[in-house]
Amino acid sequence: xxxxxxxxxxxxxxxxxxxxxxxxxxxxxxxxxxxxxxxxxxxxxxxxxxxxxxxxxxxxxxxxxxxxxxxxxxxxxxxxxxxxxxxxxxxxxxxxxxxxxxxxxxxxxxxxxxxxxxxxxxxxxxxxxxxxxxxxxxxxxxxxxxxxxxxxxxxxxxxxxxxxxxxxxxxxxxxxxxxxxxxxxxxxxxxxxxxxxxxxxxxxxxxxxxxxxxxxxxxxxxxxxxxxxxxxxxxxxxxxxxxxxxxxxxxxxxxxxxxxxxxxxxxxxxxxxxxxxxxxxxxxxxxxxxxxxxxxxxxxxxxxxxxxxxxxxxxxxxxxxxxxxxxxxxxxxxxxxxxxxxxxxxxxxxxxxxxxxxxxxxxxxxxxxxxxxxxxxxxxxxxxxxxxxxxxxxxxxxxxxxxxxxxxxxxxxxxxxxxxxxxxxxxxxxxxxxx
Length: 435
Fold this sequence. Notes:
By secondary structure, this protein is α/β, with parallel strands linked by helices. It folds into 4 domains: 32-162, 3-Layer(aba) Sandwich (Rossmann fold), CATH 3.40.50.300; 168-233, Helicase, Ruva Protein, domain 3 (Orthogonal Bundle), CATH 1.10.8; 245-334, Zinc Finger, Delta Prime, domain 3 (Up-down Bundle); 358-432, post-AAA+ oligomerization domain-like, CATH 1.10.3710. It contains 22 helices and 5 strands. It has helices at residues 4-14, 17-20, 33-36, 41-47, 64-75, 89-104, 121-125, 127-132, 146-149, 152-156, 168-182, 190-200, 204-217, 226-233, 245-259, 263-275, 280-295, 301-316, 321-334, 340-354, 370-374, 415-432, and strands spanning 54-57, 78-83, 109-114, 136-142, 159-162. It has a 5-stranded parallel sheet with strand order 2-3-4-1-5, with helices on both faces. Helix 6 (89-104) links the parallel strand 2 (78-83) and strand 3 (109-114). Helix 15 packs antiparallel against helix 16. The longest helix is centred in the last third of the chain and has 18 residues, at 415-432. The chain starts with a helix and ends with a helix.
């Protein structure tokens, strides 16, 4: 007849490895030493025996839930956990009411809200009264940038603490703890072990889950190499949500790498986006934007190349079409850079909004009627093709505005030639005087 202890042993054995290795105190938390180390923000809070509301911001698998549980244990607060994915207004009311009852009995509640950014604005506002009167200490967890996803009122009452992805040393440490727990080394060679750390992508839970898959798959005496490892774990998809921060971070990295004339980094980020499932035509559209914003007339061919790459992808499809995008990526990164047209456009937009009602000078207006001719429309207009150098030098801005200069191209690429023309026309304008 089995005993209670036998059942307990079996139950422990079937628990996932990540759960069995969950830290039992802050000192055991790996990878977040800036928060949990001797001088960490959380360590200081515990020493002061006073917790304020907090937002834990960081990637999956960095220990946000675990740390929240440990904080409640260290400070003797009642731990309540909800998920914004599965909770609504009615659920929040029940949680708040229960927390008020505990407060009346002398115990405060640490309310951990997973995926807090999933709550809408009004739901987020509902936390404010119970935070202000001390009914709860709110600890919200989010993988998204709180500045964009959370109400300013909520953020003003909570401290944002950033959780970092596990680095290689931290993942290796977790893997060592897993081997100690299992009582045997992971059945992989050195190259496969390094690959496993890469596949975890900074996620502590992932390294433990992947390791568990390897132990399950390995036969006695078997040692996996890199190819066998990939076959066993079927590769973990990159952390990339096309509607959220991971998406925008990679766009930013790609754009700035091209602007910074680094074709190697640009190719790397482009490939990361495509590998994560990004629509190649979205990448092509971004390239067109970069061609007109960051290269412009320094190399007018850049826009032609990007449009051609888009057409080539449309024609070829995947995977051959991605090579056209790679060509465009390299072309943009190695092209001379100029934001002269971009800056000129923005400045012209500002003036157009501020002076949108001013009449153009009459000498450049047509006079299709006798009345308009009597009003002076078209008087004094000089047809540039009939002028020396095909340049009259007349003023075309509204008289009340005076001449403005928006376009000041750098002396790079094709814009070097444009600069020569502009300087020549400026000289002629000064010699002849604007009329």
